[in-house]
Amino acid sequence: MSTGDWSCPVANHSSDTITMSHGAGGRLSAQLFDDVFARNYPSPELMAKGDSAVLDWTAHDRLAVCTDAFVVQPLVFPGGDIGKLSVYGTVNDLAVQGAEPVALTTAWILEEGFPIAELAKLAGSVGQAAAECSIRVVAGDTKVVERGRAHGCYIATTGIGRLRPSVNLSPQAIRSGDCVLISGPIGDHGMAIMSQRSGLLFDPPLLSDTAPLHRMTLELVDKVPGLRCMRDPTRGGIAASLNELATACGLCFEIQEASLPVRPQVHSACELLGLDPWIVANEGKLLAIVAPDEVELSLEILRSHSIGSLGAKIGTVHDLYKGLVIARTLYGTHRIVPMPAGELLPRIC
Amino acid sequence: MQSTDFGNPIHVESLVRQIHAKSTRPLTLMEVCGGQTHAILRYGIDQLLPPHLRIVHGPGCPVCVTPAETIDRAIEIASAPGVIFCTFGDMLRVPGSQSNSNANDLMHAKSQGADVRVIQSPLDALRIARAESQNTSPGSPNRQVVLFAIGFETTAPATAMAIYQAKELQLDSFSALVCHVLVPPALDAIFADVDHGIDGLLAAGHVCTIAGDHPYHRLADQFNLPIAITGFEPVDLLRGILNLVEQLEAKPTSYRVDNLYEHIASAEGNLQAQRTVETVFAVCDQHWRGMGSIPQSGLKLQPQFASFDASSRFPQRKLPGEQTSCCRAADVLRGKIRPIECPAFGTLCDPNHPLGAPMVSAEGACAAYFLYQALAPLNPIKLNPIKLTSSELTQSESPNPKDSLSP
Ligand code: SF4
User: Fold this and answer.
1) Which of A166, A185, A220 is the last residue of a domain?
2) Where are the alpha helices (DSSP H) in B51-118?
3) Domains of chain B by range and CATH?
4) Do A333 and B43 touch (CB under 8 A)?
5) pLDDT by residue (tens digit) across A132-159?
6) Which range marks the domain in which residue A305 is found?
7) Cys staple from B305: which of A138, A173, A262, B301, with CB 3.0 to 4.6 Å?
8) Do A206 and A321 belong together in one domain?
9) Which residue's alpha carbon is at the smallest distance from atom 8 of ligand 1?
10) Residue A201 maps to which CATH number?
11) Three-class SS of residue B125?
């Protein structure tokens, strides 16, 4: 095909920004695939360049599938970027279900004018994060939208995982008397982003906690028979996750604020911005509900992983109230923790 | 969480014991600061008090008292072509007067294309205006940047500074929709009502750091009212409550203002901030949502800054609509009822479907009650929760939740 007489003003081969042609499925799309995506995460499935990836699967293995979209602003934030976040976020959705992450697809929605060098860095992050989690990026897509329509880029992912044979985690498995564990301090991701957006500086700096949870969760799944259910408390923070669980199992979650780990910087940033750490997003924290006699074992496992070193038991489950989350304050008083309304923290992940 | 972040539980315990020991009769105490409302409910301070001590919440939330007509104007200006409208996040969902319109708050105006930006400080709006005025790229005409300037004495200096600097910089694209209000005149209005039913007042220390404490001395004299100036932490609040209980139980011939807020440098407040405010603003009568017009309770731009007034720069087309609502914000803001006593609370009105501003703002009393509701049927206090020592509390886990929560 000859392109010599095209009048398209963007048919420049060595363009250093994204143009509409990069999403048009033609030569520039192919070049972008080779130079940016294939270079950074060249899985055999991706390099086969089929319309769909073909994965080998053992017949009786159960499959976990999740899908997620990432629209975080800014694209690069203290402690991570949208590339890492998209891989870890997907891995974590699989991990808390008790699945071992296997494969991932990524769809990039790019804005016209987005620098290709920046895109390459983000794709590099995806590649690195995927390698770190031993998960392959097996398929992908790229679309370009007009300038001003995407603030740089969005990433949408689908994750595929293999469930551990006997695992059956669900809120319905939760019993009165169970205990609630968290793998570390809450609110780091949301406050890292909010404080960067509002120009608040902390010493030491406040970093996102974005991290993959699957090694920790798989160890829990394998060693703790009394593991009932796990959650990755992202948007809406632990307030949202605990309320979802409480509603689903019809029991009451009573959390001791004195045991709830919160970094001092997160606490101050929340005070300044009028937010509550309970509703702030996490991207590398695990909430686990376990049988009471397996708390010590579970905490040992959490704390043996660097991302769980500050893990703690934060509360108990009981049946005195239906579907409620209650916080016990340091002073022995209590309050009901409602489901957060949630629109105050846009584009956090 | 670290106990130091919250105030020391041992101090709390001792203050609670003293309050219980000294308080013998029913009293109603009012606080007038959204931050204090928030802390009282967040930490369940009210649960620690003897049942006959009632805490009510005054007009302590600037968002809640901004008139519906002003919200209407804000929506109208924000929706005008070429405008960047800068507001505190709390204002986004406060309903205006057009309750049947589909753009009755700034959030909806934004979803329909208005460029509404959330700022943390009035000076952020000035920064946006400066950046816009330096944008010389062809085909992008300089856009008007409008600051929605609301708040009490504490935020007025930053608004004044933004407007003052805009004038110095001849930044014609900047203007402000001003709805600043002053706390003491509103308190005058509340206490002038002979049936106000309030025995003592907790005043907010950070307001006094700016405005000084003299307005409170006048209030105490005029209405023979005990006043404690205090902060937001549980220990501060309890010290304030204890002070009021002691004053009221002693039944002296006249009550006084006690300043328990160590951070106040001088009784006059921050004179430089006051001068900036006086340079830019003059005191005027002001309409308060739920409370009506209160003399000398608002701020308007001085004549030499009048060109920065957004309400005269942008023509008003829409007339305010009729307000029909069962919202009892007026009674909440005067301390006549507590939010849970409003029939709409938690049924017709919640943060997702607010009927009134106090259910929207983070500092609003209704939102604080909703966010930090206690389990209504139980009153687990009787001092037993405080029996734990602080070291027990840091690893606390009530072994049997039935002990701590049973009605
Ligand atoms: S609960 Fe709702 S309706 Fe009742 S006073 Fe508060 S804001 Fe108004």
Assistant:
1) A166
2) 62-65, 68-78, 106-111
3) 1-396 (3.40.50.11740)
4) yes
5) 999 999 999 999 999 988 889 999 999 9
6) 171-336
7) B301
8) yes
9) B327
10) 3.90.650.10
11) helix
Yes or no: say if B190 and B58 are a contact pair by the CB < 8 Å rule.
yes
pTM value is: 0.83
* Cα separation, B53 vs B37, whole angstroms: 15
Distance B360 CA to ligand 1 centre (A): 10
Q: Are residues A263 and A193 in the same domain?
A: yes
Residue A187 makes CB contacts below 8 A (sequence gap 6+) with A237, A262, A263, A266, A270, A277, A280, A281, A282
Residue B254 backbone phi and psi in degrees, to 5 = -140, 145
Q: Where are the beta strands (DSSP E) in B276-360?
A: 281-288, 292-301
In a domain, A123, yes or no: yes
CB B107 within 8 A of CB B93: yes
Whole-number CA gyration radius for chain B: 23
One domain for residues A175 and A122: no
Q: Which protein residues touch ligand 1 with a CB less than 6 Å away? A: B 327-329, 332, 339, 342, 344-345, 349, 355-356, 358-359, 366
Cβ-based neighbour number of residue A20 at 10 Å: 14
Residues A103, A202 share a domain = no
Q: Is B194 exposed, middle or buried (0-12, 13-18, 19+ CB in 10 A)?
A: exposed
How many alpha carbons fall within 13 Å on the CB side of residue B3? 17
* In-domain check, residue A304: yes
Count of positions (residues) in chain B:
407
Say if the Cβ atoms of A254 and B405 lie within 8 Å. yes
Cite the beta strand spans of chain A per DSSP E. 63-70, 76-77, 80-81, 99-111, 136-145, 153-163, 179-182, 227-231, 252-256, 287-290, 312-318, 325-328, 334-336
Which segments of B97-143 are extended strands (E)?
115-119
ipTM > 0.90 (yes/no) = no
Kindly list the residues from chain A whose CB atom is less than 8 angstroms away from the CB atom of residue B89. Answer: 344
Between the CA of B231 and the centroid of ligand 1 the distance, in Å, is 26
d(Cα A142, Cα A33) in Å, to the nearest integer?
A: 9
Q: What is the pLDDT of residue B406?
A: 35
Find the residue in B nearest to A185 (Cα).
B1
Q: Which run of H or E residues covers position B339?
A: none
Instruction: Tell me how far apart the alpha carbons of residues B181 and B59 are, in angstroms, rounded to a whole number.
Output: 11
**Long-range contacts made by residues B250-254, C-beta under 8 angstroms, separation at least 24?**
B254/B221, B254/B224
**Beta-carbon separation of B41 and A335 below 8 A:** yes
CA nearest to A176, candidates A290, A317, A287: A317
For chain A, the straight-line distance linking the first and the last C-alpha, in angstroms and rounded, comes to 42
Provide, as residue numbers in chain B, all residues whose Cβ is less than 8 Å from the Cβ of A333. 43-45, 47-48, 374, 380-381, 385
Number of separate domains in chain A: 2
Max intra-chain CA distance, chain A:
78
For B98-116, the pLDDT digits (tens) are 766 677 889 889 888 899 9
For A18-36, what is the mean pLDDT?
91
